[in-house]
Amino acid sequence: MDEAQLEAQKKAEVLIEALPYIQKFNRKIIVVKYGGSAMKDPALQRSVIQDVTLLKLVGFKPIIVHGGGPAISAFLKKTGKESTFVNGLRVTDQETMEIAEMVLGRVSKNLVALVESLGVKAVGISGKDGGLLTCRKRLSDGHDIGYVGEVTGVNPKILFDLLADDYLPIVAPIGLDEKFDTYNINADEAACAIAKAVGADKLVYLTDVEGLYRDFNDKSTFISRISVSDAKKLIDKGLIGGGMLPKLSNCTSAITGGVNRVHILDGRVPHSILLEIFTNKGNGTMFYDDTDQDAAQGQQ
What we know:
43% helix
């Protein structure tokens, strides 16, 4: 067997390994929260979108929820407006909110163009469209930080309609309160709320870390899979801190809210979504319900 035949055989083996996962998740909804370095690097951006469009083409029903914090900060800087954060949340006055909505809309439409260039129909919306995301003002330790929202409700009809018409929805995390004022919503929180509302089989968070560690400074403590109860124990013991804590809270909330499995993946790794979902080993951290025996035994 020559080198070309060996290469072809390796590709065939990869497809065969993926086959049971394709069969298992056919027609299932997967929500992908897209942000971090994978948004800033054009090569990684294309890799992520290739993964999501492939999921669509092999039978998944993917929904992308995207962030855009760095892009918002960059545009604010161009206008001479400095970004201010309180406990990791951007202080958002009226002008900043208008800029954030504009930037997130632009990010959304750029992603639509990239998806469509790969042969899949996509529609970019925000949480304001169809009443998708309703919210209230979020306070930070009792301090008013402006137009920063906390999700209070999700109306998934527009997403179900788009999925039924074979579109890939791309959602910007912006919502309306009861007075129809516009608020910027944390993309992780928006993705969690949407995943629960649509009954997603999987929720994927693309991050700038490999996954979850019991001790981030000790790479040997990496956790490839963890049950909700064990994840809550880590939180209660104060072993999880920094930016990972709210993400971990969203992961456990999604599982208790009916999402089958949640994955934290390193978005800096090309095709990390495909590696996690379509291979036996995976490459990130998977969260699952305590009653999920298949997950406990290592099945993706």
